[in-house]
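Contributing new records

If you add data, match the layout below exactly. Sequence lines come first and carry their own label; structure lines follow with theirs. Keep one chain per record. Anything else will be rejected by the validation script.
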Amino acid sequence: MLRFLANVIWFVCGGLLMGLGWWLAGLVAAITIVGLPWARACFVIGNFSFWPFGQEAVSRRELRGRGDLGTGPLGLVGNVIWFVLAGWWLAIGHLSSALACFVTIIGIPFGIQHLKLALIALAPVGMAVVPLESSR
């Protein structure tokens, strides 16, 4: 029940705007055809940005115990391209939302969540969103 309440407050106080920002980035990436690998990640992380409590973003290498295409050298190249084209502005959006949340004591957990999402925005390739119970 507490997660649901936190997610509702989050959605109203910044999660909606940042989730839509992720979806917009995914739409632009999908339109370019070349950006399809990033588009899927944008929609997954956009959904995570809408309802983050009860979920966690973890490295696929840590989750599966082995590397894959997105966690190796090609993943690094993908993250560099992502950072240059879209990652920095999504991270700035999350950072400014975090600063707005840190103004009140009640907003501190939401600000921390925005900081986590800002780090994900910088390098999302090789990440997976899983329920908290699965990540432990």
